[in-house]
Amino acid sequence: MLNMIKLKEECGVFGAYSLNTNIQKHIYYGLQALQHRGQESAGIAIVQGSYVNYVKGMGLITDVFTKENLSALEGKVGIGHVRYSTTGNNEARNAQPFVANFHNGYMALAHNGNLINALELRQELENEGRILQTTSDSEIILHLIAKYYSKGLIEALKITIGKIKGSYALAILIEGKLIGIRDVNGIRPLCIGKKDDTYYIASESCGLDVIGAELIRDVEAGEIVIIDDEGLRSVKIETNEKKMPCIFEYIYFARPDSILDGKNVYKVRYEMGRHLAKESPVNADLVVPVPDSGIPASRGYSFESGIPVGEGLIKNKYIGRTFICPEQTDREIGVRIKLNVLKELVKGKKIILIDDSIVRGTTMKRLVELLKEGGAKEVHVRISSPPVKYSCYFGIDTPTKKELVGATMSVEEIKDLIGADSLSFLSIEGLKESVGLNTACTGCFDGKYPMEVLGGRSKYLFEKK
Amino acid sequence: MLNMIKLKEECGVFGAYSLNTNIQKHIYYGLQALQHRGQESAGIAIVQGSYVNYVKGMGLITDVFTKENLSALEGKVGIGHVRYSTTGNNEARNAQPFVANFHNGYMALAHNGNLINALELRQELENEGRILQTTSDSEIILHLIAKYYSKGLIEALKITIGKIKGSYALAILIEGKLIGIRDVNGIRPLCIGKKDDTYYIASESCGLDVIGAELIRDVEAGEIVIIDDEGLRSVKIETNEKKMPCIFEYIYFARPDSILDGKNVYKVRYEMGRHLAKESPVNADLVVPVPDSGIPASRGYSFESGIPVGEGLIKNKYIGRTFICPEQTDREIGVRIKLNVLKELVKGKKIILIDDSIVRGTTMKRLVELLKEGGAKEVHVRISSPPVKYSCYFGIDTPTKKELVGATMSVEEIKDLIGADSLSFLSIEGLKESVGLNTACTGCFDGKYPMEVLGGRSKYLFEKK
Amino acid sequence: MLNMIKLKEECGVFGAYSLNTNIQKHIYYGLQALQHRGQESAGIAIVQGSYVNYVKGMGLITDVFTKENLSALEGKVGIGHVRYSTTGNNEARNAQPFVANFHNGYMALAHNGNLINALELRQELENEGRILQTTSDSEIILHLIAKYYSKGLIEALKITIGKIKGSYALAILIEGKLIGIRDVNGIRPLCIGKKDDTYYIASESCGLDVIGAELIRDVEAGEIVIIDDEGLRSVKIETNEKKMPCIFEYIYFARPDSILDGKNVYKVRYEMGRHLAKESPVNADLVVPVPDSGIPASRGYSFESGIPVGEGLIKNKYIGRTFICPEQTDREIGVRIKLNVLKELVKGKKIILIDDSIVRGTTMKRLVELLKEGGAKEVHVRISSPPVKYSCYFGIDTPTKKELVGATMSVEEIKDLIGADSLSFLSIEGLKESVGLNTACTGCFDGKYPMEVLGGRSKYLFEKK
Amino acid sequence: MLNMIKLKEECGVFGAYSLNTNIQKHIYYGLQALQHRGQESAGIAIVQGSYVNYVKGMGLITDVFTKENLSALEGKVGIGHVRYSTTGNNEARNAQPFVANFHNGYMALAHNGNLINALELRQELENEGRILQTTSDSEIILHLIAKYYSKGLIEALKITIGKIKGSYALAILIEGKLIGIRDVNGIRPLCIGKKDDTYYIASESCGLDVIGAELIRDVEAGEIVIIDDEGLRSVKIETNEKKMPCIFEYIYFARPDSILDGKNVYKVRYEMGRHLAKESPVNADLVVPVPDSGIPASRGYSFESGIPVGEGLIKNKYIGRTFICPEQTDREIGVRIKLNVLKELVKGKKIILIDDSIVRGTTMKRLVELLKEGGAKEVHVRISSPPVKYSCYFGIDTPTKKELVGATMSVEEIKDLIGADSLSFLSIEGLKESVGLNTACTGCFDGKYPMEVLGGRSKYLFEKK
What we know:
The structure is a homotetramer. Chain A is an alpha+beta fold. The first copy, chain A, has two domains: 8-244, Glutamine Phosphoribosylpyrophosphate, subunit 1, domain 1, CATH 3.60.20.10; 264-440, Rossmann fold. Chain A starts with 7 loop residues before the first strand and ends in a 19-residue tail after the last helix. Chain A contains 17 helices and 23 strands. In chain A, α4 (118-127) packs across α5, α5 (137-148) crosses α6 and α9 crosses α10 (295-305). Chains in contact: A-B, A-D, B-C, C-D. Chains A and D meet through α1, α2, α3, α10 and α11 of A and α1, α2, α3, α10 and α11 of D.
C-alpha cells in the first residue's frame, strides 16, 4: 500500500530503566525504529531527580530532537512516544508523553490505543471540579491514577484499569519507576527487553533490536509490569477477558522484522502469500509486489505457486512525506512520481500484482493502469488480507465506511473499479491460519470486537471536541 | 534605563466582550499597546460557541500572530496576555492565557501578578489527587475556581479570592462571560473601557486608546467585574485591606501615555523631575535624559531649574531585542552600539544626566564615561526615584539583593562606582508627592509591603520547581 | 517622519584595513551604526589570503550575521554594505558587496549611490561578449575596473571614474588593499577614521564612533584613497566639477550624531528649527515633535520662539519593521499603534507640530487628527525643509512625482489636505543657511542637479530590467 | 550500497520546449525523477519574454520549490538541474542553472559532467579582463559561448566544444531555443523525449516516464540538438573520438527503470548478477540483497544459481538523509538504525550477500557482523562490479585512492576486513558482457580513460579554489 492512501496507525511507546546507564539515546533510537507507528509528533520524558524533564514536538524524531535537546534529557529512567494525531488544529498540545504534577511529584504517560468510554470518564472527572487540559483520552488515565493514588500506587493502577475500557499499551513514569501496562485483551502490542543493567519496554521488538537489547517476552494481556531498582515485578489483573491481539498489526502496521506475541511479522506475511496462492491461484508469468508493502506476501505467493517475483514497479527513493503536488489537478501524476513501471520486465507478461490491503481503491486503479500502459498483457490483483468492512475503535484510524471500498462494494465491483483482470482477497480463515494465534481481534473484517462498542458511534464521538 | 539591564515587569492582560463585533483584532492591537509589559510570550483565547480556541507562543505579538492564525480566532468574547516568563527552560508551556476544560465546559485565564501562598495552595490541591500541568501560580487560580464551581460562579470566585494571597489582575473567560478581577490591595493595575457595543478590560489605558475605546474607570481593589449580554455588573469583596497600587508602575513600567488610578504616568514622571530639581539642584549647563526612560523627568527638571534639555545621547533605532554581541568580550561595546554621544552638544558643558532608576549601576557607569569621553566637563547624575533596596514579591522581577546597588551601597559609594561628579536620588516623600496617591506599595524602597511576606524567602521559593 | 511612509535611502558602506587586528567585528559594529541607511540586505567581504570570503543576505545586520558566520570571516582587511534594494523580486542576488574573480585574483566592491549612464555602459560591456550577472549599476563598475586593469590599478580606477556618471561612494578590496572613492561632486558622503593600527572608511562618522575610532577627515569629491601596508595614499582626479553634497542627508537620512563634510547633523537640524521659527512664527502653547524625526528641529524652534517642547506624541517602542496590519482595512489603526497622544499635555492647547518633511501627507493628516481628538485647540504644522518637488537621480528613492504632495499641491492645498490650522515649510534659502555649505545638491527641491539628467527618464530607466 | 558511504554522482539535467503548453511543472516532475542524481541543490530557469526567470536553492526539489515559486515560473521553454555540489562552503552560489546577461540578452545553462581543462580556460578568460563569479567549471562554458557569440550561435557552440575537454551533458537556453549537447565521448547520458507539442531532454529516460513522454532516442556523442519553433535540428561535431559512456551509470548511478544508450539498467544489473553467479558460485541457502542497491543483481544471481532470494535485511523507511547520530561515538549504531536483520530468515543459514559495490568496506563489515549476530552460519559476499581502483575525472565524486579499499587491498585482504566467509567481485569482462556496449569508460576499474588525464592531479586541481 502506497503512502498516499493508507490506514494510519496511532502510536508507538518505548521505555527504559537503567541502574547505571544514561538511556536518553536508547529511547531516541528505539523511537526511530518505531517511527512507522506515528510520524506527526514525538516526545521523550526523562526522570531527573525529583522531577521529569521532557521534549515534545510535531514531526519526525529527527525534526523534534537535536543533539542539544537530547543532551539536556540525560537520565537513567524515561519513556518516549511517537504519535499519529487525529484531533484537529492544535495538535501540539496533544503530543505525548503527557507530564503532570500531582501530590506525589511527577507522573508521565505514553499511550498507544483508544479508550471507548473516554467521554463518560471525562464527565465523571469534571463533575468533581477537575480540570482537563486536552481532548485526549490518554489524559484521563493520568487523572484516574492521581485520583486514586492515595490508596497506593498498585491499587490506583488496578482501579484505573478497572474503569477504562478499550485498548491501551502504556509506558508510565511515577515514583522513579518505569511501569508498563497492556489492556486486558492485549489488543495493542507491548514487549519487554533487557541489555546489561537496563530493562526496556517497547511497542515492537524492532525497537529492542536497534539498541542491541534482547527480547525477553511480551507483556501479557492485563499485566502490570513494574521496573525499579529491585528489578522487574509483575502484577496480573484478574479478569475473564480473552487475549485478542489486533490482527492488523501483522497485516500492515508492524515492521516485518518485529516479533509480536511470539510471531515474526515477515513470516506471517509470507504465510499470507502462501495461503493466498493456494486459495486464489492464477496462470501467470510474474509476481510483482507493490513496493514495499507487498514484498513479503509476494515471496510466499511465488514460493507456493512457483511463479518468479520481479520488481515490475520501481520506487523513487527521494519522494518522501514532504512531497506535495503543486496543484490539485496534478494528483494523477502522484503515483507516477512515486513508482515507475519497469517495462522491460512486464511487457507482454501476465502479472500477479500483490499488496497487503485495499482501502479506497484509487491507488490500485492507477497501478493497474500503469502496468497495462507498460505493456502487461493481464494484471491479476491478489490482496493478502480480507476486505476491510468495519471501523476500528481500538486505535486504527480507518476511513469512514463509505470511503472503504470493502464495505460498500462486492469483490467483483472492486475488480471493475480498479480495472484488474481478476481480483482476490485472502479469506479470514486463511488469515487466521497464517497468523497462527488462537484468538485475535478481526473486528475490521467481521465486526467481531473484543468488547461491545456502541454501534452508531464514530470513533470521534468518544472524544469530546 | 537602557534595555540591557533592567527590572522586568511580569505581564499585561486584556479582555473584550462585544455583542455584535468580532474582537480578535482589538485584542491583538490592545496587546500591541501593552507589549512593554512582557515580550517573552503572548496569547489570545476566544470563545467560539461551546469551546475556547487559542493561539499562544513565545516572542512578541508579531512573532506569535499571523494573518492566518488571527483570522482563525474570530469571535466576540476573548482575552489576551503578554508575559515576561521567569520559570526555566520550558517556558512555552507557561504561556498564557491558560485554557482548561472542566465540568461546565471551558475556562480561560490571564494573570498579571504573583501569589505569595502558591506553594501552600498547590499542596492542598495535589493532596486531593488533582493534577497540575505547570509550575505557574496562575494555574492554581484555575483549579480553585473549578473546585468550588459547584457552589455557583460568583461564590466560587469569592472563595478563590479569599484563599489566594498576593497581587493579581485577572481576565477570565467562563460561561461565555468576561470577568475582570483586581486583588484586594489593587497592587497591579486594571481598567475598564467601552466603545460602541463592546466592553474592554486592560492592564493600562494605552491599550484602550489604540482601538479608540474610552477609559470608563479603573477596576477597584477587591472588585469582580462581570461582563455579559446584560452589560457590566460589579461584585465587591468585603475586606479591611487598603488600596496600595504598585508605585513602580509610575516610575518605570507603565507607558507614559497611560492613566493608572486616575493619574497620568507622564505627568507623574514630570513631577518627579520637578521634585528632584527642588531636592537636588545643581549648577549646570544642560539636562540630558537617558533615552527614552529619562525624558519625562528631564522635562520636569528643566522646567523647575530653568536649565535647557538637550539630546546629548542619540539612540540607534535599529538595535532591537535581537542584538547580541558576538562575543562576551564585546560587552563593553554594547552601550556604544545603542547610544552615541552628541559631542557638539556636550563638549565643555556641565551635564545633568537624568534616568528613572539605577539597578546594577553598570550601564550608568558607561554612560558617564561616554559623556566624559565626549568632552563633558562635569556629569551630575539625578535619578527620579529612590534607591531600590528590597525585593518585590508582587510581580516585579528584581535582581537579588546583592546585585542591587541600592541595597548594598551608600549613595556616595554608588557615585564613586559610576564615576559621576555628583549623584542624587529622589526621596520617598518626593516620590509620593509626585504620584499624589494617599497609599501605595513602596515595598521595594522601604520594605513596607501590603501584606506580610516571609522574610528570608526569595520570590522563587513561592513556586515549586 | 514615521517609518510608514518615507523616503528611502539607498546604502551605507564601511571598510577597514588593519596591520595586526582582526576587523570583521569592527565592520559588523560599523554596519550596525549605519543600519539606518539600508535595512533590506547586508554583507561583509574579508580578504583571507589569496581570496575573499563573504557573507551576504536579506534583512538587518542581526538577521544576516551570526556568531558562527562572523567568526568564519576572520581577517584584517574587509568591507561591508547595508542596502535598501529597489530592483524587483530576486533581491538576494543584488546584495552587496559584489565579489568577483578576475585575472589578478579577487575584487570586492560596495557602492552607495546611483549611476545615470548605467544603460549605456552595460551595452558597451555586453557588446564585447562580457557576461553580467545582475541588473545592478554597481556590477558595471567591477567590470570596468577588470577591463582596464591591465593598464595598472590606479590607471584602471581613473579610467573607470572617467566613464561612470552619477553618484558613488565606493569601498573596494583589490590586491589586498582597501580603496575608497567618492564621486567628483561628492554627492554621497564618505569619511576616513583611524584607531591604533587600523584605518576605516565609512559613509557616516557614527560608524567610526561605535568602535571608538577617530574621525580623520572626509574623502574629498573626486578623491581615490588607497590604504595598504604603507599607510594611506590619496590620488585626486583632475576635474572642473564643483563639490555638491546631497542636502537631504542633513534633513533626513544621516544620523543626528554624524558629522558630514564638517557639519554635525543634529546641529544643522537644530538650526533648521531656528530658521523655521524665524520664518514662520506662530502664537502657540507647545512645540510637539513628531518622534523621532522632528526632535532636533523642535528644539531649535523652541529655543528661537521661547515656546516649550513637550512629548505630545508617545511612541510604542515595540512596534518595529515587522509590524503588519492583519488586514488592509486596518491601515487607519496603523498610526495609533505607533503613536498615542498624551492628552494630559495637549488638551486645550495650541500646538506647533514639527517634522522634517512631508512626502504623501497621509501620515501627517492622521497625526493632526489624533492631536485634535486628544483635545488640541489648534495644530500648526511646521516642516523643517522645503517641499520635495523633483525626483532624485543620485541615490534616493523618491516616490513618483504624482505621489509627492509638494510637486502637485500648493502649500495651502496641503494644509487643507492634512487639516492643519496653518502650515509652513522652511525656505530653500533658510535651509542652505542652516547647513552652511557653499554649494550642495538641492535638486529634489529646485530641480538643479550637479549634472544634466535626461528629463523624462524615471530613475528606473537607467537600469536594464 | 547504503546511503552512509557512497560514491556521489554529480548532476542531472532536464529541459523542455513546448509550442503551447506551460512546462514548468514538467521540469519539476522530471527533476523529481532525477533526484537520485543530486540532492544538494536544485534549480529551474524559464524563458519569460525577453528574459529568464529562475529559482535555485540548496536541498531537494521539495525543499527548493513551492507552489508559489513554481507558479511564478510559468513558461513554455525552460531547463532544470539537480546537483551534488563538491566545492566548499558557499555552495549556494554554485547552484545551477547558471543564468547570465550578455549582449544578445540572456543565457542559461545546466551541466552534468566535469571539465578537465577548466583551470587553463579560466586563466585565458581572466587574462582578457573578464570576471568570473564562481569556481565552477560550468561557468566557463557560459563565458566561451558569450565570447564567440558574435560569430553566430552554432559557430560559437562549435568553438566552445572545440575548447572544452572532459565530460558534459548540457541543457542551454539561448535566443528562445532549447539546446542539448553531449560531449564527444558521450560520457554522461542525455536523451530526447516527446509528448504532444513538447520536446524534452533529460539525463535519464525515467525523467520522461514520469510525465508520460516517449523516449525518442539518445543524444549522440558530439551532437548538438537545437529545439525551437521549427522543431528539432541536429548538428554533429566532426571528431575521431569513440563513444565511451560511463559504465558506472549502469552499476550504481542511474535508476533501474531508465534506458541509457538503448540498455535498460535493471536488465543490465540482473545480467551482472547472472554473470556473478557463473563466475563465483557458492553452496548456500539464501541470496540476501543489500536493500535497495543489491536487489536487481540478487535476482539474476538467484535465477542463475537456483538459490532463493529472501529479505534478510529490513530497511527503516523513515531514516532519511536528515538522520544524524547525536554523537560521534554512536556511529556504530548507524547501520542498525537503517537496517535490521530478519533473524527468522537467516538463522542457521548460509547466506550470499549481494551488493553493487564496495567503497570503504566499513558498511559491508557491519552488515556481515549483523547477519552473523542474527544467526547466519556463513556469509559469502558477492559484488556485482569489479573493485574500484582509480579516481574518476569525469563527474563522479570518488573518495581519494587511499580510502578506496579496491585500490589498496587485495580481494583476500578485503574479505578479512569485512569478516566474510568468502568474497568475489564481478570481472571487468563479465561487467562488459552484462552491459553489452562495444566501448565504455571503465577508467575507475582499469585506469583506461577516454582521454589523457594528467596523472598526479586530483580532480580538485582542475578547479581554482
